[in-house]
Write a structure and sequence with these properties.
This protein is an alpha+beta fold and 117 residues long. The chain has one domain: Ribosome hibernation promotion factor-like (Double Stranded RNA Binding Domain), CATH 3.30.160. It contains 2 helices and 4 strands. It has a 4-stranded mixed sheet with strand order 1-2-3-4, with helices on one face. The longest helix has 41 residues. It is elongated. The N and C termini lie far apart (48 Å). 18% of the residues are buried.
Length: 117
């Protein structure tokens, strides 16, 4: 798994990097077929101070790409919200993949059952 953490208009400190890595472990713990994770942390120059800190994440998993972004007054809170969103998306993707496999097996059983003498 490749992990890229970059900052736009802010420096990614070792403490911030460690925090992101610890949070993203939850996603890789739930789904082990993660190929690539790209995290972008940025500080927007907006008038509203509530939404200046932004976190964006793109995860490439087997079968598709997942994307989410969050904004908050605190960057750590934005990362927490982002990881929650990504965890839900990964769980939904995992269940869809399982549904496809199960439906394929059921169709195969029907074909085998109908061809049996």
């Amino acid at each position: 798994m490749n992990l890229t953490i970059s900052g736009h208009h802010l420096e990614v400190t070792p403490a911030l990097r460690e925090y992101v890595v610890n949070k993203l472990e939850r996603i890789t713990r739930h789904f082990d077929q993660v190929v690539d994770i790209r995290m972008l942390l940025k500080l927007d120059n907006q008038k509203e101070k509530e939404l200046r800190q932004r976190a964006e994440c793109r995860i490439h998993v087997k079968g598709s790409d997942l994307f989410a972004e969050c904004a908050d007054e605190d960057l750590y809170a934005a990362i927490d919200l982002l990881v929650d969103k990504m965890d839900r998306q990964v769980s939904e993707h995992k269940s869809r993949m399982g549904d496809r496999v199960l439906s394929g097996r059921a169709a195969k059983r029907e074909v085998l059952a109908s061809s049996a003498p």
